Amino acid sequence: MAFRTTAVVRSGLKKWAYNLSGFNKYGLLRDDCLYETEDVKEALRRLPDHVVDERNFRIIRAVQLSIQKTILPKEEWTKYEEDKLYLTPVVEQVKKERLEREKWEKDY
């Protein structure tokens, strides 16, 4: 029973922190907020064009809303349940490949 209660509390805490972060009020996803390192740029290059276009639209809309000092209507906010990690798995793969390549170059 304690495990279920703990899982519910953690889930509630995650949702609270997600909403507190504020990026969802601009319609952004978590992966839209990643700092663009070389690994992230390579991962973006590997994504299909329509996914990158959707990401660019969300970012441009968020910048425009920020300049206007406003947010989206509440029904258009990104919900915790709808937020999917579309870029993180690709970034992790790119990092893994880069580390493997660096190890190979170092050893051979």
From TrEMBL:
The gene is LOC113518430. Belongs to the UQCRB/QCR7 family. Keywords: Electron transport, Membrane, Mitochondrion, Mitochondrion inner membrane, Respiratory chain, Transport. It is found in: Mitochondrion inner membrane. It is a peripheral membrane protein. The keyword Mitochondrion applies. One of its GO terms (biological process) is mitochondrial electron transport, ubiquinol to cytochrome c. Component of the ubiquinol-cytochrome c oxidoreductase, a multisubunit transmembrane complex that is part of the mitochondrial electron transport chain which drives oxidative phosphorylation. This is Cytochrome b-c1 complex subunit 7. One of its GO terms (cellular component) is respiratory chain complex III. InterPro entries: QCR7, QCR7_sf. Gene3D superfamilies: Cytochrome b-c1 complex subunit 7. The keyword Manganese does not apply. Component of the ubiquinol-cytochrome c oxidoreductase (cytochrome b-c1 complex, complex III, CIII), a multisubunit enzyme composed of 3 respiratory subunits cytochrome b, cytochrome c1 and Rieske protein, 2 core protein subunits, and additional low-molecular weight protein subunits. The complex exists as an obligatory dimer and forms supercomplexes (SCs) in the inner mitochondrial membrane with cytochrome c oxidase (complex IV, CIV).
